[in-house]
Design goal:
With 387 residues, the chain is α/β, with parallel strands linked by helices. The chain has 2 domains: 166 residues, VC0802-like; 208 residues, Rossmann fold, CATH 3.40.50. Helices cover 40% and strands 22% of the residues. It is built from 14 helices and 14 strands. The strands form 2 sheets. It has an 8-stranded mixed β-sheet. A 6-stranded mixed β-sheet has the order 13-12-9-10-11-14, with helices on both faces. Helix 6 links the parallel strand 10 and strand 11. The longest helix is centred in the last third of the chain and has 19 residues. The protein is elongated, with a radius of gyration of 26 Å.
């Protein structure tokens, strides 16, 4: 059975001359999210009309609610602009809302783009509202300020009637802002950073630095699970696993202990740049926030950021932990992120890390490692997992 959904967009409408590019990307993203069902997507006058066959409503809602660029979506009924046809569909929708226990107060909200019709938007709303009261009697009551449910009527090339729907995540369609590399740990912050940059249209690959046998298979599996959770928000995701053990052991052997974490982060930045170049990515994304840990003081971020030729986006940079946790819970990452399996940054953290490193001194320590060739060798050993 075919069902029709009316999809509303927000920020895309501001794009003027480039709008068609954003609309096409959103259309592609919707079809990809529902690729296991037969779908058609038609764009008309700022609305997307999705037709999907034999797909449970809860699946449509779950998937559309994670597609950036969508503001809202509604299961809709399409009919002719004949008033009797409209009235019949409106009555059906009112009865459905009453049957579902959505309350008794209502209003009718009409949007008329076809100016050839005999009534204007207000007249359609008022006339239909009166007919609903006549039909349903004491079961309903008009409340235009705070109704329990709204009957929406759009009069375009046809009439579209719809009521309750779902809320989209807003933002810009993934893929409209280029490609980036997310440095994904097993913690709370980096998955949140990833979905925040996906909301701005960046198509992400994720990179994870694995140090077996010092970090466990459970820690790796945790990152795989986090990748699966954020993948729908990102329009699909590739997880790039980088074997980091040899580099980490070299750092531990040759670097003063307080600087070990900074050296590791610098190596991760450089490797991420190498992989980004291969995958045509134009930025890095991290979950760093100023002052959260020793490697995220302003001085530390200055040094580690200097090891990336690409821009490094840190969307959490001014947030506190409670704010980040709220988002982590909303996207269902939190319970996975707090599983007690440490990544290499936590596993090899020194007891007394340097928190205000001198830039020149820290750069000199890094250069003394003479590690560039090993960084390229390590990048070439990376394995890609399609999520």
């Amino acid at each position: 059975m075919e069902e029709l959904y009316l999809i509303k967009i927000g920020e895309i409408t501001l794009k003027k001359g480039n709008r068609k590019i954003f609309e096409k990307q959103l259309k592609d993203n919707i079809k990809r999210a529902l690729k296991d069902f037969k779908t058609t997507v038609i764009i008309k006058s700022g609305r997307f009309y999705l037709t999907v066959s034999n797909c449970p409503e809860e699946i449509v809602h779950t998937r559309l609610s994670k597609i950036y660029g969508i503001v809202g979506f509604y299961k809709a009924h399409k009919t002719s602009k004949d008033f009797e046809d409209i009235k019949e569909k409106v009555f059906d929708l009112v009865q459905q809302n009453l049957n579902n226990g959505r309350g008794r107060t209502f209003k009718v909200d009409t949007r008329r783009t076809d100016k050839s019709l005999s009534m204007d938007s207000y007249q359609y709303s008022a006339t239909l509202g009166g007919l609903i009261l006549d039909k349903f009697g004491d079961s309903v009551e008009v409340n235009v300020r705070n109704p329990d449910f709204i009957i929406n009527l759009e009069l375009r090339e046809s009439a579209y009637i719809y009521g309750f729907g779902g809320k989209g995540p807003c933002g810009l369609p993934v893929g409209t802002a280029g490609k980036g590399i997310l440095l994904l740990s097993g913690g709370i912050d980096s998955p949140v950073a990833g979905i925040m940059m996906a909301k701005r249209g960046i198509k992400l690959d994720a990179i994870y630095f694995h140090t077996p046998p010092y970090t466990s298979e459970e820690s790796f599996n945790k990152v795989v699970d986090l990748s699966k959770i954020i993948s729908p928000w990102c329009g699909g995701l590739n997880l790039i696993s980088v074997p980091f053990t040899e580099i980490q052991l070299k750092i531990n052997k040759e670097v003063p202990a307080p600087y070990a974490t900074l050296m590791g982060r610098a190596c991760m930045m450089r490797i991420s740049n190498i992989i980004a170049e291969k995958r045509n990515a134009i930025c890095l994304v991290t979950g760093e926030a100023v002052g959260q840990v020793a490697s995220q003081t302003i001085q530390s971020l200055h040094f580690t950021g200097s090891n990336s030729q690409l821009p490094v986006f840190r969307p959490l940079v001014g947030m506190d932990k409670d704010e980040i946790i709220i988002i982590s819970k909303r996207i269902n990452c939190y319970e996975t992120s707090i599983k007690p399996f440490d990544d290499c940054c936590a596993m090899f953290a020194p007891l007394h890390p340097e928190t205000r490193p001198d830039f020149e001194k820290t750069t000199e320590i890094f250069n003394s490692l003479n590690i560039e060739e090993l960084l390229y060798e390590t990048a070439n050993k990376a394995e890609i997992i399609s999520i």
